[in-house]
Write a sequence for this structure.
């Protein structure tokens, strides 16, 4: 599989060189530098030279490169590289040149552990952190054979993501439903594409080995329930803790959501979900992403944007952008930022807004309009004018789409609701659960 | 600078000396720091192999971190000091019996990476013990070590029965041990098929399916890959596999999803039609989800979806919108999305698609724009009911008057003419752009249209006369078209073109050096002067041409079948059989020779290094010499390696360029076009065989399709340059492509 992992900085200096196989020679580092880093024309993440294949991803200011000599599994290679980035981030906060330089010993240690002979091994952050730690702390643990035995047991076990001896005085679980809503709207105002990429992040502080069951207003599941006569109605009973401000609705009242597709953390029993769409799992300790899902039907768009952009001759562009919040007036969105592209040869702009502040950012070729707090139902307008400087070669303006970013609490674009989260544990403790919903802009683009 | 200084420094000073002092220091922390510095120097590409004995002294330590660093050093430089490695053996053997499983595993893992023959003899005992270790962590590490050992000394591995031990370990209670055993066995199996290392029996199949649900994500990929390679003929086995694997579609890791899709897709053939339909339905949403992953993963997924669609065109029928390009998608993702959108276009969604494609055609990235326009043409030819809308869209685009848009649109319209009659009405619009066309492909396309519809264009004679006037300044590809078009005109309206045909035949035979052009002119001349059968020329030149079926590039069925078995691997990304880019047999004979020469060079480079390093151990003058070697190495490398990697494609392309009289682009080692060119060459070769027949019938067909093929492929490797620059220099690249084709015919 992988012959080696290399990390470069932007200048092409080799920061990490870890060969797993004989065929990964030091000179490959030079080849990569010449062929990819200093070659502006390369536009593919995969490059095969001779029989050597370089697959690279770029993160912050470093290149992370996998070298393979065989017909390797490309999806696995990239996924692994991204996992490495994730590991780096969770170990060092930020995975960039500086972090790599300061922690190269630790990185070598990690690379030794997560790949063996080029085959990925355990890459679970939590498990790795038990025995590969930043200096000092660790000798005590790892030099004790019984502890090590326990660690290794976990690193390979069926529950490789959870320690057995977790204890909390107060058992709590926090569920965050975070949705990224993607929109592509045409210049004529028709929705070309609207979908939701959601993720459910859980922070579990639960003792022992708890079995969790998780219920959503998933249409297929609800249909299943309805079909199976006499199945106990679990709706509100599961929500023992308060705080879930979305309000627990009975099944009749809650609309159901069609999930196009879901992906689960490896702790979820996939067979069970496949058979009867029940999400059941033993959670890792602490924060993890329980699932990701996709919904494309009945997407509620929180904002409607009407841009009018007129190019007047070759010297001026006039903008009039209206934006309306399309959610209940009890809610409000924060950090609403609207980026309005301007032609590359913009010399100067003037803006007027009915709310918030607008500023021209020449380096981005954008007028950036920020509204810190956007109440439901409100409508705001920006009018602006960009004066263009004369250009020698008149090239048409590509009119990139206008884009939006925002975050909106207690709102889900897909209409998804958490119906229950049940925790079963041997000691039968009671636990408190909290649910939070948030919708953010994914790629929210409006053409004009 | 440092190196030069180092080369002249007295051996008693310098970095190496300081490191050595640190390594033998009496304080533990100083030693550790020195080891860290040594590793740092090693990473930077400095040769610190001279420190081998001093580093080795630090191997017996209770500090795990330090031990790991020493091991890392050992792995890197073991080859330069094969004899000294033996000194480490004792520590390894001891460590492999340490009460701490982490240390046992570390020892056996590192031992396998020290590629020195002598090490093999000492590995047997520790390996045998660790394979039966009580800790699953050690067992899973030992399992991989068997594969390492096999790589080093297959004979020894077989003699000691390690393979059998591994095969037993498929039944291990720990899923990760199972996964690693399968990994090791499959590696051995692929390296030496005669060992029959990995044989899936009904019994192992059961074990694999059991482990599948419990092991780590990477282990799942291994097991799924093994399952996909398993060929069963038993329907119930196939059903069982599909049933157990399908839940993995929901895994968070895209590579697990792809591996699961692959497994189900390959085993689905055996299960009944109803069931396989539900599986196809089930795999669609996860495939779509892959499109929202990181761009690189997305790219791999898209290439694979492309393959799946060629086999099962309708699995993503309703998912057109997810493939719409985002403004910020990297170009390689955009290009692939375009291809997929065309593949899933049907008579229900083409409206939406066309609106989208038109949007793309108005963007500024020239390469992307061209592909978008090409896609419009592909849709028109694929879906008859869409044709009119497509033509209207293309006309709208022509009205934008953007130079490259117009040119590409004309090429595309030519293809539409080749399938659908009844659009002659737009010819005058096209003819208006005649002065703007500067690319041979576009000129050729327009001339072909004029020739084909000569009887309906009143001023066809005048248009062609203009081209005949400058005949010898045209590109050969255009010349061929002018020739054909004039002859067609003459046959259709003899009165108008009598003089023209004489003139052009004269120009093509007497003043032209290109044998293709000359030969074709002679053929026409003969035909026209054939008095025995006056209809001969008419029958041949104006014969009814078969309409084209599609301009969408599809892989030959046999290759497609092969690639479907390679889903999610590099082969599936390149759409090439693995033999073409892995290992030997990748090039022709002279390339093999070249490779051999390079290997020798490399050996030569390594040997002095080894020699120098060996000398370094002995003593005094070594560092100096060594530094020299290092410098030489660098120089040597910078010059040769990339150049040799490129010689072949570079030569081929620039040769053609030279022929056609455009400036030859000098390939700097850094600016090279990667192996993609090999593909182009290959493909062209294939194409060249079938092409001539079409060419003589009516020229542009082959040109058009050829260009499609080419562009399809440049998408793959992103032949570079097409994107960025101002139009003038940007047109350089397409030209080159065309010339490739032209010179072949």
């Amino acid at each position: 599989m992988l012959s080696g992992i290399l990390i470069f900085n932007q200048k092409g200096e080799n920061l990490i060189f870890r060969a797993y196989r004989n065929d990964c020679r030091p000179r490959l580092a030079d080849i990569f530098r010449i062929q990819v880093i200093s070659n502006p024309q390369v536009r593919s993440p995969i490059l095969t030279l001779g029989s050597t294949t370089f697959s690279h991803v770029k993160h912050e200011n470093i290149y992370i490169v996998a070298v393979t000599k065989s017909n390797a599994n490309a999806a696995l290679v990239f996924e692994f590289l991204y996992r490495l980035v994730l590991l780096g981030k969770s170990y060092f906060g930020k995975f960039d040149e500086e972090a790599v330089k300061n922690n190269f010993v630790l990185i070598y240690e990690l690379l030794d552990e997560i790949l063996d002979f080029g085959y990925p091994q355990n890459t679970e952050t939590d498990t790795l952190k038990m025995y590969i730690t930043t200096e000092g702390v660790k000798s005590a643990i790892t030099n004790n054979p019984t502890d090590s035995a326990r660690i290794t047991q976990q690193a390979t076990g069926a529950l490789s993501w959870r320690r057995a001896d977790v204890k909390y005085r107060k058992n709590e679980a926090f569920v965050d439903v975070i949705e990224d809503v993607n929109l592509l709207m045409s210049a004529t105002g028709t929705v070309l594409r609207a979908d939701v990429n959601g993720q459910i992040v859980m922070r579990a502080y639960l003792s022992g080995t708890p079995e969790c069951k998780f219920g959503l207003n998933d249409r297929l599941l609800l249909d299943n329930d309805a079909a199976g006569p006499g199945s106990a109605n679990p709706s509100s009973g599961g929500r023992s803790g308060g705080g879930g401000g979305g309000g627990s609705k009975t099944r009749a009242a809650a609309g159901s959501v069609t999930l196009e597709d879901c992906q689960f953390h490896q702790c979820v029993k996939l067979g069970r979900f496949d058979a009867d769409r029940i999400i059941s799992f033993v959670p890792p300790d602490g924060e993890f992403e329980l699932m990701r899902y996709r919904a494309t039907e009945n997407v509620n768009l929180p904002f409607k944007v009407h841009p009018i952009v007129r190019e007047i001759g070759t010297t001026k562009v006039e903008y009039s952008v209206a934006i309306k919040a399309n959610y209940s007036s009890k809610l409000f969105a924060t950090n609403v930022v609207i980026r309005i592209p301007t032609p590359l040869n913009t010399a100067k702009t003037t803006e007027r807004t009915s709310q918030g502040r607008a500023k021209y950012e020449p380096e981005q070729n954008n007028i950036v309009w920020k509204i810190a707090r956007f109440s439901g139902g409100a409508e705001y307008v920006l009018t602006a004018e960009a004066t263009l400087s004369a250009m020698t070669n008149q090239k048409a303006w590509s009119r990139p789409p206008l884009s939006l970013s925002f975050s909106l609490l207690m709102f889900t674009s897909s209409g998804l609701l958490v119906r229950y989260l049940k925790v079963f544990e041997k000691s039968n403790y009671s636990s408190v659960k909290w649910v939070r919903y948030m919708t953010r802009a994914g790629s929210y683009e409006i053409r004009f | 600078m440092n190196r030069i200084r180092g080369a002249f420094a007295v051996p008693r000073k310098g970095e190496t000396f300081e490191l050595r002092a640190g390594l033998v220091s009496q304080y533990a922390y100083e030693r550790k720091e020195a080891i860290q510095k040594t590793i740092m120097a090693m990473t930077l590409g400095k040769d610190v192999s001279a420190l081998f004995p001093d580093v080795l002294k630090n191997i017996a330590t209770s500090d795990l971190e330090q031990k790991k660093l020493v091991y890392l050093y050992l792995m890197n430089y073991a080859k330069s000091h094969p004899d000294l490695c033996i000194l480490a053996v004792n520590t390894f053997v001891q460590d492999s019996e340490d009460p701490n499983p982490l240390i046992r595993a570390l020892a056996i893992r590192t031992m396998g990476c020290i590629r020195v023959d002598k090490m093999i003899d000492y590995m047997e005992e520790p390996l045998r013990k660790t394979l039966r270790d009580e800790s699953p962590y050690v067992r899973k590490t030992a399992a991989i070590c068997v594969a390492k050992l096999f790589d080093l000394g297959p004979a020894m591995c077989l003699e000691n029965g390690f393979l059998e031990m591994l095969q037993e370990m498929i039944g291990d209670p720990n899923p990760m041990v199972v996964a690693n055993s399968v990994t090791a066995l499959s590696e051995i199996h692929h390296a030496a098929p005669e060992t029959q290392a990995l044989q899936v029996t009904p019994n192992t199949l059961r074990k694999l399916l059991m482990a599948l649900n419990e092991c780590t994500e990477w282990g799942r990929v291994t097991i799924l890959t093994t399952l996909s390679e398993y060929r069963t003929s038993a329907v119930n086995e196939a059903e069982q596999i599909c049933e157990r694997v399908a839940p993995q579609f929901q895994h968070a890791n895209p590579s697990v999803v792809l591996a699961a899709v692959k497994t189900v897709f390959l085993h689905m053939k055996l299960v009944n039609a109803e069931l396989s339909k539900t599986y196809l339905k089930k795999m669609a949403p996860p495939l779509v989800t892959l499109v929202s992953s990181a761009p690189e993963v997305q790219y791999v997924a898209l290439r694979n979806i492309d393959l799946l669609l060629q086999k099962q065109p309708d699995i993503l029928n309703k998912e057109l919108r997810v493939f719409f390009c985002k403004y910020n998608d990297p170009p390689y993702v955009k290009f692939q999305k375009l291809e997929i959108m065309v593949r899933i276009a049907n008579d229900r969604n083409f409206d939406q698609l066309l609106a989208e494609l038109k949007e793309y055609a108005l963007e500024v990235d020239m390469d992307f724009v061209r592909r978008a326009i090409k896609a419009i043409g592909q849709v028109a030819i694929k879906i008859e009911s869409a044709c009119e809308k497509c033509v209207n869209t293309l006309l709208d685009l022509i009205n934008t008057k953007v130079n490259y848009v117009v040119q590409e649109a004309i090429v595309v319209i030519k293809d539409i003419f080749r399938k659908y009659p009844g659009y002659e009405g737009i010819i005058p619009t096209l003819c208006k752009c005649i002065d703007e066309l500067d690319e041979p492909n576009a000129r050729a396309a327009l001339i072909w249209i004029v020739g084909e519809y000569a009887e309906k264009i009143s001023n066809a004679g005048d248009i062609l006369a203009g081209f005949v006037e400058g005949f010898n300044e045209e590109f050969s590809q255009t010349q061929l078209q002018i020739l054909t078009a004039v002859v067609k005109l003459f046959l259709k309206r003899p009165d108008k073109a009598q003089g023209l045909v004489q003139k052009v035949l004269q120009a093509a035979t007497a003043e032209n050096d290109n044998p293709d052009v000359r030969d074709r002119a002679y053929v026409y001349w003969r035909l026209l002067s054939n008095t025995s059968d006056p209809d001969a020329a008419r029958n041949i030149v104006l014969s009814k041409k078969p309409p084209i079926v599609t301009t969408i590039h599809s892989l030959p069925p046999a290759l497609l079948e092969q690639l479907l078995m390679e889903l999610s691997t590099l082969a599936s990304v390149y759409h090439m059989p693995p033999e073409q880019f892995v290992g030997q047999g990748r090039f022709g004979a002279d390339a093999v020779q070249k490779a051999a020469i390079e290997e020798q060079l490399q050996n030569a480079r390594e040997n002095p290094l080894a020699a120098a390093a060996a000398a370094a151990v002995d003593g005094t003058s070594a560092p100096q010499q060594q530094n020299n070697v290092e410098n030489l190495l660098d120089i040597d490398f910078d010059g040769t390696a990339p150049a040799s990697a490129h010689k072949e494609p570079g030569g081929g392309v620039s040769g053609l360029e030279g022929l056609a009289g455009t400036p030859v682009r000098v390939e700097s080692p850094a600016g090279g076009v990667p192996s993609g060119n090999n593909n182009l060459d290959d493909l062209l070769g294939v194409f060249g065989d079938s092409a001539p027949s079409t060419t003589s019938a009516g020229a542009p067909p082959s040109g058009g399709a050829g260009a499609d093929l080419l562009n399809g492929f440049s998408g793959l490797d992103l032949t570079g340059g097409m994107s960025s620059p101002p139009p003038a220099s940007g047109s350089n690249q397409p030209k080159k492509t065309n010339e490739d084709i032209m010179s072949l015919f």
User: Anything to note?
Assistant: Chain A touches chain B through 110 residues (CB under 8 Å).
